Amino acid sequence: MGFIRWMSVAVTATTAVMAVLVLGSTGYELPSRVGAGATLAAFILLWFTVGVRSRKSRIAALVFLSVLVPIVGMGVAFMPVMATLQSLAYPLIWVIAERTRHAVIGNIAVALAVGIGFLVSLGFAPETVLYSVTVATLSLVFSLALGLWITQISKLSSQRHDLVLELQSTREELANISRDAGVSSERERIAREIHDTIAQDLTGLVLVAQRAKRELDNNQPAAAASQIELIEDSARVALAEARALVAASAPVGLTGDGITSALQRLAQRYSRETSLTVTVEAEHLPAIPRESEVVVLRCAQESLANVRKHAEARTAAIVVIVTDEELTVSITDDGVGFDTNDAHIGFGLEGMSERLALVNGRLAVESSAEGTTVRATIPLGVSA
Predict the structure, then answer these.
(1) What's the pLDDT tens digit per position in 127-172?
(2) Among 13, 70, 77, 190, which is 20 to 30 Å from 91 by CA?
(3) CB pairs under 8 A, 24+ apart, for 240-244?
(4) Are 299 and 376 in contact (CB under 8 A)?
């Protein structure tokens, strides 16, 4: 609507100025002035009846351009001053034509019509022919150069607009993918935390509860009471782990006294809950990043849980060695072992591998009939 409104203003203003020039021209006979005036009336009538619809209708555009060319030629044939209509005809053709090729053909047609109009109005003398060809050619060249330049700018602008829209769409897609990846990563983290903490604590509770039931069945209330006390302690630990998980804080096993004390408490708890004797060798360790302490504690928890479930072991040992470049925690048991080639890697070992991968660490498992060693190595200075 903005283009049609402004072009209507331009057509009206230009036609009014040319009407004044035509009516005020005394050097032309009355028939020429009447013919030029009729041409102006036809031009403005053509615009307001067909031209204003040409942007929305291909048929209207074709009719307007087909009639515009002879109107301009006839106007120049009546009075050469009517060549001023070129200033509107060329831009209208560039804007209304559907394709650049059509606009170029329309420009050539207008130039021919203007040239023929000059010849009809001024005669066929050599100087008149030269003048007509020169004016028509210069007008055509200028129109083609300006029109092609503006068309190219318009195409580039349209391409850039499409590119901006595509980039915005891509950015939104990337944001959605990143958000989904974050949600998935958080779910995996929570799943690992639940498996390594609450699930293991509940497994221990089940085993201790079964032991307490056996003690009651054997009429040993004192022993059963000891197991019930252990159940209460384990339940408190599980509750604290659950609260820590909800609060997204560090594991409750890690307090201000460091990883060594946390591993010793873990070993004592497993020794109480099972017949397994767990020892810890992690004395005089240098300060290590908090994130590395979390990974060490989780790997130790999962390894001891596997020992309790599958190894049928009597003893287990947790050994932590720290060098300048890396930390290694080894959990060794004297159980029955398993075939590492044929064994199905459950969520425990898989979760351990995923947790270590987050800190560029690595997991190694060695097993035989004499026992199993799970070794987790973590580069120091890498945050989880």
Answers:
(1) 888 988 888 889 889 888 888 888 888 788 888 888 888 888 888 8
(2) 77
(3) 241/197, 241/198, 241/201, 242/197, 242/198
(4) yes
Tokens of 348: 């425990």
Instruction: Tell the residue number behind the tokens 């945050």, with chain if given.
Output: 383
Render pLDDT for 339-363 as a digit per residue (tens, 0 to 9). 877 655 555 778 788 888 888 889 9
**Start and end residues for every CATH 3.30.565.10 domain found in the chain:** 258-384
User: For residues 206-242, b (16+ Cβ closer than 10 Å) or e, as one string?
Assistant: ebbeebbeebeeeeeeeebebbbebbeebeebbeebb
Rg (the chain; Cα; Å): 46
**257 with 222: CB under 8 angstroms?**
no
- What's the pTM value of the predicted model, to 2 decimals? 0.45
Report the pLDDT value the prediction gives residue 287, as an integer from 0 to 100. Answer: 81
> From the CB of residue 275, how many other CB atoms can be counted at a distance below 10 Å?
9
Measured distance CA(130)–CA(125) in Å, rounded: 9
Q: Between residues 354 and 38, which one has the greater pLDDT?
A: 38
- CA–CA gap between residue 48 and residue 337 (Å, rounded): 94
How is domain 258-384 classified at the CATH fold level? Answer: Heat Shock Protein 90 (3.30.565)
- Residues whose CB is less than 8 angstroms from the CB of residue 255 and which lie 6 or more positions away in sequence, other chains included: 261, 262
Contact criterion met (CB below 8 Å) for 274 and 207: yes
CA distance linking residue 309 with residue 61, whole number of Å: 84
Give 175-190 as a 3 state SS string: HHHHHHHHHHHHHHHH
